Amino acid sequence: MANKKATSPTKFGLEHRNFRDDEFWKQIPGWASVSRDEFADHKWQLKNSITKVEQVEKILGKRVSKDFMADIVQGQHYTPMNIRITPYVFSLINWDDPANDPLRKQFLPIGSQYLHDHPYYKSDSLAEDEDSPVPLLTHRYRDKVLFLPTTICPVYCNYCTRSRIIGGSTETIQKSTYGANQKKWDDVFEYLMGRPEVEDVVISGGDAYMLTPDQIRYIGKNLLEIPHIRRIRYATKGIAIFPQKILTDDAWFNALKEVHFLGRSFGKQVVIHTHFSSPQEITKWSQRAMDRLFQENFVVRNQAVLQEGVNNDVNIMVKLTKQLEWINIQPYYVYLHDMVPGCEHFRTTLKEAEELEKAVRGTTAGFNTPTFVCDLPGGGGKRHVASYEYYDEEMGVSVWKAPNVKPGDVFFYCDPLHKLSEKAQKRWSDENEWEKIINEVKEKAGI
Ligand code: SF4
Question: How far away, in angstroms, is 155 Cα from ligand 1 center?
Protein backbone atom coordinates (compact mmCIF):
# COMPACT_ATOMS: atom_id res chain seq x y z
CA MET A 1 0.00 0.00 0.00
CA ALA A 2 1.03 3.63 -0.42
CA ASN A 3 3.02 4.18 2.73
CA LYS A 4 1.74 7.66 3.39
CA LYS A 5 -1.74 9.09 3.59
CA ALA A 6 -2.54 12.01 1.35
CA THR A 7 -3.47 14.06 4.40
CA SER A 8 0.09 14.19 5.75
CA PRO A 9 2.47 16.52 3.92
CA THR A 10 5.23 14.84 1.94
CA LYS A 11 8.77 15.69 2.98
CA PHE A 12 11.14 16.42 0.16
CA GLY A 13 14.28 18.50 -0.13
CA LEU A 14 16.59 19.26 -3.02
CA GLU A 15 18.03 15.79 -3.56
CA HIS A 16 16.16 15.52 -6.85
CA ARG A 17 18.82 17.80 -8.38
CA ASN A 18 21.66 15.37 -7.75
CA PHE A 19 22.28 12.69 -10.37
CA ARG A 20 24.88 9.98 -10.12
CA ASP A 21 27.77 10.18 -12.55
CA ASP A 22 30.08 7.56 -11.10
CA GLU A 23 31.35 4.57 -13.10
CA PHE A 24 28.56 2.39 -11.75
CA TRP A 25 28.95 -0.26 -14.46
CA LYS A 26 32.30 -1.25 -12.93
CA GLN A 27 30.42 -2.97 -10.10
CA ILE A 28 29.49 -5.63 -12.68
CA PRO A 29 32.38 -8.13 -12.77
CA GLY A 30 32.12 -8.60 -16.55
CA TRP A 31 32.33 -4.84 -17.21
CA ALA A 32 34.86 -3.85 -14.54
CA SER A 33 37.39 -2.77 -17.16
CA VAL A 34 34.98 -1.01 -19.53
CA SER A 35 36.04 2.62 -20.01
CA ARG A 36 33.70 5.61 -19.84
CA ASP A 37 34.13 6.16 -23.59
CA GLU A 38 33.15 2.59 -24.39
CA PHE A 39 30.14 2.77 -22.06
CA ALA A 40 29.08 6.03 -23.75
CA ASP A 41 28.99 4.40 -27.18
CA HIS A 42 25.50 3.40 -28.33
CA LYS A 43 26.97 0.58 -30.43
CA TRP A 44 28.69 -0.86 -27.34
CA GLN A 45 25.42 -0.63 -25.40
CA LEU A 46 23.50 -2.48 -28.12
CA LYS A 47 26.17 -5.11 -28.65
CA ASN A 48 26.42 -5.87 -24.94
CA SER A 49 22.71 -5.89 -24.17
CA ILE A 50 21.62 -8.89 -22.14
CA THR A 51 19.24 -11.13 -24.07
CA LYS A 52 19.73 -14.52 -22.39
CA VAL A 53 19.70 -15.83 -18.85
CA GLU A 54 23.14 -17.41 -19.40
CA GLN A 55 24.58 -13.94 -20.06
CA VAL A 56 23.27 -12.76 -16.69
CA GLU A 57 25.26 -15.46 -14.95
CA LYS A 58 28.34 -14.90 -17.09
CA ILE A 59 28.46 -11.15 -16.60
CA LEU A 60 27.69 -11.23 -12.86
CA GLY A 61 29.95 -14.10 -11.88
CA LYS A 62 29.53 -14.72 -8.16
CA ARG A 63 27.75 -11.42 -7.56
CA VAL A 64 24.41 -13.23 -7.09
CA SER A 65 23.65 -16.39 -5.18
CA LYS A 66 22.92 -19.70 -6.88
CA ASP A 67 19.40 -19.58 -5.44
CA PHE A 68 18.72 -16.19 -6.99
CA MET A 69 20.07 -17.35 -10.35
CA ALA A 70 17.75 -20.36 -10.12
CA ASP A 71 14.86 -17.96 -9.45
CA ILE A 72 15.78 -16.00 -12.61
CA VAL A 73 15.83 -19.23 -14.62
CA GLN A 74 12.44 -20.13 -13.15
CA GLY A 75 11.08 -16.71 -14.17
CA GLN A 76 11.57 -17.65 -17.81
CA HIS A 77 8.85 -20.30 -17.48
CA TYR A 78 6.23 -17.67 -16.62
CA THR A 79 7.22 -14.38 -18.22
CA PRO A 80 5.28 -13.01 -21.19
CA MET A 81 8.34 -11.00 -22.27
CA ASN A 82 11.78 -11.87 -23.64
CA ILE A 83 14.85 -10.63 -21.85
CA ARG A 84 16.51 -7.58 -23.34
CA ILE A 85 18.34 -5.19 -20.99
CA THR A 86 20.88 -2.52 -21.90
CA PRO A 87 24.16 -2.53 -19.93
CA TYR A 88 23.17 0.94 -18.67
CA VAL A 89 20.05 -0.35 -16.89
CA PHE A 90 21.61 -3.65 -15.90
CA SER A 91 24.44 -1.81 -14.09
CA LEU A 92 22.01 0.47 -12.27
CA ILE A 93 20.43 -2.53 -10.54
CA ASN A 94 21.53 -2.91 -6.94
CA TRP A 95 23.02 -6.40 -7.16
CA ASP A 96 23.48 -6.49 -3.39
CA ASP A 97 19.71 -6.74 -3.08
CA PRO A 98 18.36 -7.68 -6.52
CA ALA A 99 15.12 -9.19 -5.20
CA ASN A 100 13.90 -5.77 -4.06
CA ASP A 101 15.45 -3.63 -6.75
CA PRO A 102 12.94 -1.60 -8.81
CA LEU A 103 14.90 -1.97 -12.06
CA ARG A 104 15.44 -5.70 -11.65
CA LYS A 105 11.70 -6.00 -11.04
CA GLN A 106 10.87 -4.18 -14.26
CA PHE A 107 13.30 -5.91 -16.60
CA LEU A 108 14.44 -9.24 -15.19
CA PRO A 109 11.64 -11.47 -13.86
CA ILE A 110 12.10 -14.09 -11.15
CA GLY A 111 9.85 -17.11 -10.76
CA SER A 112 8.97 -16.40 -7.13
CA GLN A 113 7.33 -13.06 -7.97
CA TYR A 114 4.49 -14.43 -10.07
CA LEU A 115 0.86 -14.59 -8.94
CA HIS A 116 -2.18 -16.03 -10.70
CA ASP A 117 -3.70 -13.67 -13.23
CA HIS A 118 -6.99 -12.01 -12.33
CA PRO A 119 -10.01 -13.90 -13.76
CA TYR A 120 -10.81 -10.91 -16.00
CA TYR A 121 -7.30 -10.33 -17.38
CA LYS A 122 -6.95 -10.23 -21.17
CA SER A 123 -3.91 -10.32 -23.41
CA ASP A 124 -5.36 -7.33 -25.31
CA SER A 125 -6.90 -5.72 -22.25
CA LEU A 126 -7.31 -2.32 -23.93
CA ALA A 127 -9.02 -3.84 -26.99
CA GLU A 128 -6.50 -2.22 -29.32
CA ASP A 129 -7.01 -4.92 -31.96
CA GLU A 130 -10.79 -4.48 -31.85
CA ASP A 131 -10.44 -0.77 -32.61
CA SER A 132 -8.01 -1.34 -35.46
CA PRO A 133 -9.38 -0.34 -38.90
CA VAL A 134 -6.11 -1.27 -40.69
CA PRO A 135 -3.16 -3.35 -39.43
CA LEU A 136 -0.74 -1.51 -37.11
CA LEU A 137 -3.26 1.24 -36.28
CA THR A 138 -5.72 1.74 -33.41
CA HIS A 139 -8.35 4.40 -33.99
CA ARG A 140 -10.33 4.83 -30.78
CA TYR A 141 -10.52 8.54 -30.00
CA ARG A 142 -12.07 10.59 -32.78
CA ASP A 143 -9.09 12.88 -33.38
CA LYS A 144 -6.19 10.69 -32.29
CA VAL A 145 -4.68 7.41 -33.47
CA LEU A 146 -2.04 4.99 -32.23
CA PHE A 147 0.38 3.76 -34.88
CA LEU A 148 2.56 0.71 -34.10
CA PRO A 149 5.20 0.58 -36.85
CA THR A 150 7.35 -2.04 -35.11
CA THR A 151 7.20 -4.50 -32.23
CA ILE A 152 10.86 -4.32 -31.28
CA CYS A 153 12.23 -2.39 -28.28
CA PRO A 154 15.70 -1.66 -26.88
CA VAL A 155 14.59 -3.28 -23.61
CA TYR A 156 11.67 -5.54 -22.84
CA CYS A 157 9.64 -4.45 -19.83
CA ASN A 158 8.02 -7.21 -17.84
CA TYR A 159 4.93 -5.11 -17.34
CA CYS A 160 4.38 -4.33 -21.04
CA THR A 161 0.72 -3.81 -21.91
CA ARG A 162 1.39 -5.12 -25.44
CA SER A 163 3.09 -8.33 -24.33
CA ARG A 164 0.87 -10.11 -26.87
CA ILE A 165 2.97 -8.71 -29.74
CA ILE A 166 6.13 -7.07 -28.37
CA GLY A 167 9.40 -9.01 -28.57
CA GLY A 168 9.57 -12.71 -29.38
CA SER A 169 7.50 -15.66 -28.17
CA THR A 170 8.04 -16.97 -24.66
CA GLU A 171 7.06 -20.24 -22.99
CA THR A 172 3.68 -18.72 -22.08
CA ILE A 173 2.86 -16.60 -25.16
CA GLN A 174 3.18 -17.21 -28.87
CA LYS A 175 3.53 -13.87 -30.65
CA SER A 176 3.23 -12.64 -34.17
CA THR A 177 5.97 -10.04 -33.68
CA TYR A 178 6.65 -7.92 -36.76
CA GLY A 179 9.49 -5.69 -37.87
CA ALA A 180 9.35 -2.67 -40.16
CA ASN A 181 6.94 -3.17 -43.07
CA GLN A 182 6.72 -0.19 -45.39
CA LYS A 183 3.74 -1.53 -47.35
CA LYS A 184 1.69 -1.76 -44.14
CA TRP A 185 2.85 1.72 -43.11
CA ASP A 186 1.68 3.06 -46.48
CA ASP A 187 -1.76 1.50 -45.86
CA VAL A 188 -1.86 3.37 -42.54
CA PHE A 189 -1.01 6.69 -44.25
CA GLU A 190 -3.70 6.03 -46.86
CA TYR A 191 -6.29 5.36 -44.17
CA LEU A 192 -5.32 8.55 -42.35
CA MET A 193 -5.60 10.62 -45.53
CA GLY A 194 -9.23 9.59 -45.72
CA ARG A 195 -9.95 10.52 -42.09
CA PRO A 196 -9.94 14.33 -41.86
CA GLU A 197 -11.00 14.22 -38.20
CA VAL A 198 -7.63 12.76 -37.14
CA GLU A 199 -5.19 15.43 -35.94
CA ASP A 200 -2.86 13.55 -33.62
CA VAL A 201 -0.69 10.46 -34.18
CA VAL A 202 1.21 8.54 -31.51
CA ILE A 203 4.05 6.54 -33.08
CA SER A 204 4.63 3.79 -30.58
CA GLY A 205 5.14 0.07 -30.74
CA GLY A 206 7.59 -1.24 -30.01
CA ASP A 207 9.87 1.68 -29.69
CA ALA A 208 10.90 4.47 -32.05
CA TYR A 209 14.49 3.88 -30.86
CA MET A 210 14.54 0.74 -32.98
CA LEU A 211 13.56 2.54 -36.19
CA THR A 212 16.44 3.39 -38.51
CA PRO A 213 17.12 7.05 -39.40
CA ASP A 214 15.48 6.50 -42.81
CA GLN A 215 12.40 4.97 -41.17
CA ILE A 216 12.16 7.87 -38.71
CA ARG A 217 12.24 10.26 -41.69
CA TYR A 218 9.83 8.21 -43.81
CA ILE A 219 7.19 7.97 -41.12
CA GLY A 220 7.60 11.57 -39.96
CA LYS A 221 7.47 13.06 -43.46
CA ASN A 222 4.49 10.99 -44.59
CA LEU A 223 2.46 11.86 -41.51
CA LEU A 224 3.35 15.56 -41.49
CA GLU A 225 2.41 15.89 -45.17
CA ILE A 226 -1.16 14.82 -44.42
CA PRO A 227 -2.84 18.24 -44.19
CA HIS A 228 -5.10 17.57 -41.19
CA ILE A 229 -2.41 15.86 -39.03
CA ARG A 230 -1.29 18.59 -36.62
CA ARG A 231 0.69 16.67 -34.00
CA ILE A 232 2.91 13.62 -34.03
CA ARG A 233 4.65 12.03 -31.06
CA TYR A 234 7.47 9.54 -31.19
CA ALA A 235 7.16 7.24 -28.18
CA THR A 236 10.37 5.79 -26.82
CA LYS A 237 11.56 4.39 -23.54
CA GLY A 238 15.05 5.00 -24.88
CA ILE A 239 15.88 8.15 -22.91
CA ALA A 240 15.21 6.22 -19.70
CA ILE A 241 17.10 3.03 -20.44
CA PHE A 242 19.60 3.95 -23.17
CA PRO A 243 20.45 7.69 -23.10
CA GLN A 244 23.75 6.97 -24.86
CA LYS A 245 21.88 6.69 -28.18
CA ILE A 246 20.71 10.31 -27.96
CA LEU A 247 24.27 11.34 -27.15
CA THR A 248 26.27 9.33 -29.67
CA ASP A 249 24.03 8.06 -32.49
CA ASP A 250 24.20 11.23 -34.59
CA ALA A 251 22.59 9.69 -37.68
CA TRP A 252 19.49 8.74 -35.67
CA PHE A 253 19.41 11.99 -33.72
CA ASN A 254 19.75 14.05 -36.91
CA ALA A 255 16.86 12.18 -38.54
CA LEU A 256 14.68 13.06 -35.56
CA LYS A 257 15.87 16.66 -35.76
CA GLU A 258 14.99 16.81 -39.47
CA VAL A 259 11.44 15.62 -38.80
CA HIS A 260 11.16 18.11 -35.95
CA PHE A 261 12.36 20.90 -38.24
CA LEU A 262 9.95 19.83 -40.98
CA GLY A 263 7.09 19.86 -38.49
CA ARG A 264 7.95 23.37 -37.33
CA SER A 265 8.18 24.57 -40.94
CA PHE A 266 4.60 23.29 -41.39
CA GLY A 267 3.50 24.84 -38.08
CA LYS A 268 3.01 21.35 -36.59
CA GLN A 269 4.18 19.69 -33.39
CA VAL A 270 6.73 16.86 -33.28
CA VAL A 271 7.31 15.80 -29.68
CA ILE A 272 8.75 12.83 -27.80
CA HIS A 273 6.92 10.76 -25.24
CA THR A 274 9.16 8.77 -22.94
CA HIS A 275 8.74 6.36 -20.14
CA PHE A 276 10.63 6.70 -16.84
CA SER A 277 8.98 4.81 -13.97
CA SER A 278 11.66 4.91 -11.28
CA PRO A 279 14.02 7.64 -10.03
CA GLN A 280 16.74 4.99 -10.16
CA GLU A 281 16.63 5.19 -13.97
CA ILE A 282 17.65 8.85 -13.88
CA THR A 283 21.36 9.68 -13.89
CA LYS A 284 23.66 12.36 -15.26
CA TRP A 285 23.48 10.44 -18.56
CA SER A 286 19.74 11.09 -18.69
CA GLN A 287 20.34 14.76 -17.96
CA ARG A 288 22.99 15.03 -20.69
CA ALA A 289 20.66 13.32 -23.19
CA MET A 290 17.85 15.66 -22.21
CA ASP A 291 20.16 18.68 -22.49
CA ARG A 292 20.87 17.69 -26.09
CA LEU A 293 17.18 17.32 -26.89
CA PHE A 294 16.34 20.55 -25.08
CA GLN A 295 18.96 22.49 -27.03
CA GLU A 296 17.14 21.36 -30.18
CA ASN A 297 13.80 22.55 -28.78
CA PHE A 298 12.25 19.12 -28.33
CA VAL A 299 9.32 18.88 -25.97
CA VAL A 300 9.55 15.61 -24.00
CA ARG A 301 6.73 14.22 -21.86
CA ASN A 302 6.78 11.22 -19.55
CA GLN A 303 4.32 8.38 -19.09
CA ALA A 304 5.05 6.22 -16.05
CA VAL A 305 3.38 2.96 -15.09
CA LEU A 306 2.36 2.55 -11.47
CA GLN A 307 3.99 -0.63 -10.18
CA GLU A 308 4.06 -2.34 -6.82
CA GLY A 309 7.53 -2.19 -5.29
CA VAL A 310 8.77 0.15 -8.00
CA ASN A 311 7.01 3.45 -7.50
CA ASN A 312 3.83 2.95 -5.42
CA ASP A 313 5.21 5.17 -2.69
CA VAL A 314 4.57 8.87 -2.20
CA ASN A 315 8.20 9.84 -1.70
CA ILE A 316 9.35 7.88 -4.73
CA MET A 317 6.59 9.31 -6.91
CA VAL A 318 7.34 12.87 -5.78
CA LYS A 319 11.06 12.35 -6.37
CA LEU A 320 10.40 10.94 -9.84
CA THR A 321 8.16 13.89 -10.68
CA LYS A 322 10.66 16.48 -9.47
CA GLN A 323 13.65 14.81 -11.12
CA LEU A 324 11.82 14.68 -14.43
CA GLU A 325 10.87 18.33 -14.36
CA TRP A 326 14.44 19.25 -13.32
CA ILE A 327 15.81 17.69 -16.53
CA ASN A 328 13.04 19.28 -18.66
CA ILE A 329 10.69 16.33 -19.02
CA GLN A 330 7.04 17.02 -18.36
CA PRO A 331 5.58 14.33 -16.04
CA TYR A 332 2.44 13.79 -18.06
CA TYR A 333 0.73 10.53 -17.05
CA VAL A 334 0.94 7.80 -14.42
CA TYR A 335 -0.99 4.73 -15.56
CA LEU A 336 -2.73 2.32 -13.30
CA HIS A 337 -1.38 -1.05 -14.43
CA ASP A 338 -3.36 -2.75 -17.18
CA MET A 339 -5.01 -6.13 -16.59
CA VAL A 340 -2.63 -8.11 -18.81
CA PRO A 341 -1.04 -11.54 -18.27
CA GLY A 342 1.91 -12.10 -15.95
CA CYS A 343 1.53 -8.73 -14.20
CA GLU A 344 -0.61 -9.40 -11.15
CA HIS A 345 2.35 -8.80 -8.83
CA PHE A 346 2.90 -5.37 -10.40
CA ARG A 347 -0.66 -4.14 -10.06
CA THR A 348 -1.93 -1.82 -7.34
CA THR A 349 -5.47 -0.99 -6.31
CA LEU A 350 -7.41 1.94 -7.70
CA LYS A 351 -7.62 3.27 -4.14
CA GLU A 352 -3.84 3.35 -3.93
CA ALA A 353 -3.61 5.27 -7.21
CA GLU A 354 -6.13 7.80 -5.93
CA GLU A 355 -4.16 8.28 -2.70
CA LEU A 356 -0.93 8.77 -4.60
CA GLU A 357 -2.53 11.28 -6.95
CA LYS A 358 -3.76 13.31 -3.97
CA ALA A 359 -0.35 13.20 -2.32
CA VAL A 360 1.64 14.21 -5.40
CA ARG A 361 -0.68 17.08 -6.28
CA GLY A 362 0.59 20.27 -4.71
CA THR A 363 4.24 19.26 -4.60
CA THR A 364 5.01 21.22 -7.76
CA ALA A 365 3.38 23.31 -10.49
CA GLY A 366 0.17 21.93 -11.97
CA PHE A 367 1.55 21.60 -15.52
CA ASN A 368 4.30 19.36 -14.17
CA THR A 369 1.99 17.26 -12.01
CA PRO A 370 1.23 13.89 -13.61
CA THR A 371 -2.37 12.91 -14.16
CA PHE A 372 -3.05 9.45 -12.74
CA VAL A 373 -5.20 7.51 -15.19
CA CYS A 374 -6.87 4.17 -15.65
CA ASP A 375 -6.79 3.00 -19.27
CA LEU A 376 -10.12 1.24 -19.29
CA PRO A 377 -10.16 -2.50 -20.01
CA GLY A 378 -12.27 -3.03 -23.12
CA GLY A 379 -11.18 0.17 -24.84
CA GLY A 380 -12.84 3.07 -23.06
CA GLY A 381 -9.63 5.07 -23.15
CA LYS A 382 -7.80 6.85 -20.37
CA ARG A 383 -9.84 8.22 -17.47
CA HIS A 384 -8.69 10.13 -14.38
CA VAL A 385 -8.44 7.66 -11.47
CA ALA A 386 -11.09 9.52 -9.49
CA SER A 387 -13.62 9.69 -12.34
CA TYR A 388 -15.23 6.26 -11.89
CA GLU A 389 -19.01 5.93 -11.62
CA TYR A 390 -18.81 3.54 -8.68
CA TYR A 391 -16.08 1.71 -6.75
CA ASP A 392 -16.64 -1.37 -4.60
CA GLU A 393 -13.40 -1.36 -2.63
CA GLU A 394 -14.27 -4.58 -0.81
CA MET A 395 -14.56 -6.65 -4.00
CA GLY A 396 -12.04 -4.48 -5.85
CA VAL A 397 -14.28 -3.60 -8.79
CA SER A 398 -14.75 -0.11 -10.23
CA VAL A 399 -17.34 0.90 -12.82
CA TRP A 400 -16.63 3.46 -15.53
CA LYS A 401 -18.16 5.21 -18.49
CA ALA A 402 -16.48 6.90 -21.44
CA PRO A 403 -19.21 9.01 -23.05
CA ASN A 404 -17.00 10.61 -25.71
CA VAL A 405 -15.18 7.43 -26.63
CA LYS A 406 -17.80 4.67 -26.49
CA PRO A 407 -21.16 6.23 -25.59
CA GLY A 408 -23.48 3.91 -23.69
CA ASP A 409 -20.79 1.33 -22.85
CA VAL A 410 -19.88 0.40 -19.27
CA PHE A 411 -16.35 -0.65 -18.31
CA PHE A 412 -14.90 -2.44 -15.29
CA TYR A 413 -11.47 -2.28 -13.74
CA CYS A 414 -10.56 -4.91 -11.13
CA ASP A 415 -8.03 -4.53 -8.35
CA PRO A 416 -5.44 -7.30 -7.87
CA LEU A 417 -6.97 -10.07 -5.78
CA HIS A 418 -4.04 -10.48 -3.38
CA LYS A 419 -4.71 -6.94 -2.10
CA LEU A 420 -8.32 -7.67 -1.16
CA SER A 421 -9.68 -8.95 2.16
CA GLU A 422 -9.59 -12.70 2.81
CA LYS A 423 -13.35 -12.83 2.50
CA ALA A 424 -13.29 -11.14 -0.91
CA GLN A 425 -10.43 -13.35 -2.10
CA LYS A 426 -12.42 -16.41 -1.07
CA ARG A 427 -15.37 -15.34 -3.19
CA TRP A 428 -13.14 -14.59 -6.19
CA SER A 429 -11.52 -18.02 -5.84
CA ASP A 430 -14.84 -19.62 -6.85
CA GLU A 431 -15.39 -19.41 -10.61
CA ASN A 432 -19.17 -19.52 -10.12
CA GLU A 433 -19.00 -16.25 -8.20
CA TRP A 434 -17.27 -14.14 -10.85
CA GLU A 435 -20.33 -13.11 -12.79
CA LYS A 436 -22.36 -12.68 -9.59
CA ILE A 437 -19.74 -10.29 -8.19
CA ILE A 438 -19.83 -8.15 -11.31
CA ASN A 439 -23.65 -8.17 -11.36
CA GLU A 440 -23.82 -7.14 -7.69
CA VAL A 441 -21.44 -4.24 -8.35
CA LYS A 442 -23.51 -3.23 -11.38
CA GLU A 443 -26.62 -3.22 -9.25
CA LYS A 444 -25.01 -1.11 -6.53
CA ALA A 445 -23.80 1.27 -9.24
CA GLY A 446 -27.37 1.54 -10.55
CA ILE A 447 -26.44 0.16 -13.96
S1 SF4 B 1 9.42 -0.13 -24.19
FE2 SF4 B 1 7.17 0.05 -24.17
S3 SF4 B 1 6.45 -1.29 -25.83
FE4 SF4 B 1 8.59 -1.87 -25.35
S5 SF4 B 1 8.44 -3.51 -23.85
FE6 SF4 B 1 8.63 -1.60 -22.69
S7 SF4 B 1 6.50 -0.97 -22.28
FE8 SF4 B 1 6.44 -2.51 -23.93
Answer: 7
